[in-house]
Amino acid sequence: MPESRFAAKLNEQIGHEFGACQQYIAIAVHYDAETLPRLAAHFYRQAVEERNHAMMIVQYLIDAELDVAIPGVEGPQTSFSDTVEPVVLALGQERRVSEQIAALAGIARDEGDYQGEQFMQWFIKEQVEEVASMSSLLKVVERTRDNPLLAEEYLVRESTVEAADPTAPHAAGGAL
Question: Is the predicted pLDDT of residue 148 greater than 90, yes or no?
Answer without folding.
Answer: yes
